[in-house]
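ENTRY TYPE: paired fold submission
RECORD: A
CONTENT: sequence, then structure tokens
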Amino acid sequence: MNALKTRSRNTRRALMLGSASAAAALVLAGCSSSGGDGGDDGDGGDGDGASGDELKISTILPQTGNLSFLGPPEFAGVELAVAELEEAGYEYDISLSHHDSGDTTTDIATQSADAVVQEGASVVIGAASSGSSFTFIDKMIDANIVMISPANTAPDFTDYDDNDVYWRTAPSDVLQGRVLGNLMTGNGAANVAFLVVNDPYGTGLAENARMAVESAGGSVVAEELFNPGETNFATQVSSIMGQNPDAIALITFDEVNLAVPALSDAGVTGDMMYFVDGNLSNTFDFPEGTLEGALGTQPGAIAEGDFKDRLLEQDPELVDFNYAAESYDAVVLAALAAAQGGGTDADTIKANMQSVSEGGTKCTTIQECLDLLADGEDIDYDGVSGPIEFNEQGDPTSAYIGVYEFGADNRYEFVRAEEGTI
């Protein structure tokens, strides 16, 4: 067991490469097993879980690009899940390889997807960016590789024709948008503005936040779009400030590092700014007090206590924990689906993903869930990210949205969590 824990940590270090072609050269050997037919009855598979079977997991997560700050906690969550599955005596061998998703200004994600297909993975964890996921989701559908994103929130995925390949452990921005809009109006903002990255994530979140603002009686007086990778926000900031908003939602990725100084120069104080999951970070290098009073929303439960300690054992340098829990749960759910169905092939995993997330005996740890499965029990895994409970579209139907507040040191602290259903 300890050997695989070491292997998973070493695998990450070996495969942290900037190009998919380099990653392909270090692909783990072996092919996915095909232990089962993955029928439609929620049991799937006819494999016997022989020790030669292997659950092949690949990741396509940000090592570079405008969401690279999300990479470390997501990798830590994946690796922690693999290590703890092995420690719990998981019946299948697990192989793990990491690939870069980059961002939508490059084709790194599609190159990585090609490498994952060649590896013969059963499951890919990723991407973080909704826009990046859209660049390779069709490759995963064609190759019949289960794709579980820990961070995609664009509503567009809900109705995507995915042949049951696509799942996500982060909730649709129908929920985060609702919380964000209500947070702004609940704090007294009658006229709000949005600065929005022009991609499926940004426009989807903005649309849902707008509906919440207007439902609460507020008005969206400005909505300025910019392209990913934008470096000059003078035009957008000028347009926004011309409308005299009470609050400004920054629906961006790491472009926020340039947008905030532009807003500050225009007289915007921290308590007028609202951040979202794409930019909520503890790594900002702004003058002291710049973000004081700013609020942010983040899908998922806060990583704290024992889970946070376990993540830090995987990566002692973590300063952000965004989507670590969702990454952990993505791996655990795929592994439990394989165990319940009796095979590591994609069809078996697809056929059992929804079943292990709802309707059975509650379990909250890997060991507890595996013990119940060994006793022939139907399980309902409630993870570290929340209750999950997939619907037929592969979306979690219930989730938490955390609310955070920045202090004078430009670091955020947890305020509260709001549970909602979609």
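RECORD: B
CONTENT: sequence, then structure tokens
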Amino acid sequence: MMSTEISVVVPCYNEADNVLPLVNALHAALEGRAWEVIFVDDNSPDGTIKAVRQLAAQDPHVRGLLRIGRKGLSSAVIEGILASSAPIVAVMDGDLQHDEACLPAMIEALKTGDFDVAVASRHVEGGDSAGLANKWRHFLSEQGIRIAKSLSVPVNDPMSGFFAVQREWFEAIAPSLTGRGFKILLETLLAAPKPVRVKEVPMVFRDRLHGESKLGPQVMIQFGIMILENVMKKPLFKRIALISSSGIVGTLAYKIYKIKNDSQL
């Protein structure tokens, strides 16, 4: 029996309709490899964990992790990675917007030992963010890239939710992560020892077929807090330079207020 080559962690909430299509897509993308998928469900009222368990009873590739009393994408990802059994762990959304066909290239990049992280990127040649229809998500992506550049994060798409890591590398960083918010890749890159070796694989971001986006003002505020917490870990002179040069506090506060009020019109 082959040892598991890759674990795919899928944080999810109200994604019952997407469980079977995603598993079928992973079977096609990872044919010939030893893999598992771990659905980390925050006690979804739509029965997501029930759909996972029904499938797991028939398919040994499928696992489910039910969280009660805890919510949040970043903390779900951390728990899923720490519960994985493979040396390489990928993280992807459960809404079918991430292109699973990127996985083989991401796996091979990490297997060389030359990279710590492989990112499915919308912002390299061959990538596209066409499925990013929500104005909240457009704003967060644009501001996240701007902020990440001011913080010298070595990736073109730091806001990607689809990435893979060496599990041992991530485990060493995990104790320093807050687990708040939903952009765990950016927080991981900020917390990691430098230099971080990153491989970006082009991805076309697809339209959501089922369910609704979980993005809202509260999530964006959590994102801002996470950024500020990481900035505050810097030496004093660098903190002042980063905040003043990127306008982190003012930009986020103004945009959150404006978009929230626009959405109520």
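NOTES ON RECORD B: The first strand starts at residue 6 and ends at 12. Confidence is low (pLDDT under 50) at residues 236-246.
STATUS: closed
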